[in-house]
Amino acid sequence: MRPTAPELMAAIVESLERQVAPNLQDKWAASALRSATQLLNHLAIRIEREGRVLVEDNRDVRHVLEAALPRLAAQAEFFDLRAVVEKALSDPEPSLQDTAGLDARNEIYQTAVELLLRRPGMRTLDGSSVYESLRDYLHRRLQREYPLYFPVFTHPPF
């Protein structure tokens, strides 16, 4: 469908910058406009890439959680965490086209990751391999999400 959502947002940004920005005398209004254009530029990129990022991230974190599960099962002190991870892994995966479902699924996975990272004793579990695999996953996640934010947010928003 033309224009695409990113094309529409680019046209809005261009119009705001060309027609509105030069006529703003108030510094706060100009600042708000710059912030709005940055967010529109971010949204244009996010609309195009968010689904793919979520699919990749869900696969990655699922693999990390599946690998951690047997290690959690070996320690009675992590029984509650094992239950959280098992529940997260047991929910059905959404369709690859269901961005809202993929996002909800990702939130469930992220909750499990956060609980694991916050638990005392996780750094020493199984020679810290679980902790290291979680840290490595988070590094990969940052790399996946980087293009959603940069270069859009490299300019001052105010």
Question: Which key features would you list for this structure?
Answer:
158 residues, mainly alpha, 5 helices, 73% helix, 0% strand, elongated
- Taking all Cα atoms into account, the compactness measure Rg is 21 Å
Q: What is the helix fraction of residues, given as a range?
A: over 70%
The dominant shape is elongated
Number of distinct helices: 5
Mean pLDDT: 93
Structural class: mainly alpha
- SSE pattern, N- to C-terminal: HHHHH
| Low-confidence runs of at least 5 consecutive residues | none
Describe this structure as you would to a colleague.
- By secondary structure, the protein is mainly α.
- The chain has one domain (5-154).
- The protein contains five helices and no strands.
- The chain has helices at residues 5-20, 27-73, 79-90, 99-118, 129-149.
- It is elongated.
- The model has no long low-confidence stretch (mean pLDDT 93).
Brief overview:
The chain has one domain.
What does the secondary structure layout of this molecule look like, with pairings?
Blueprint: H1 5-20, H2 27-73, H3 79-90, H4 99-118, H5 129-149
Helix pairs in contact: 1-2, 2-3, 2-4, 2-5, 3-4
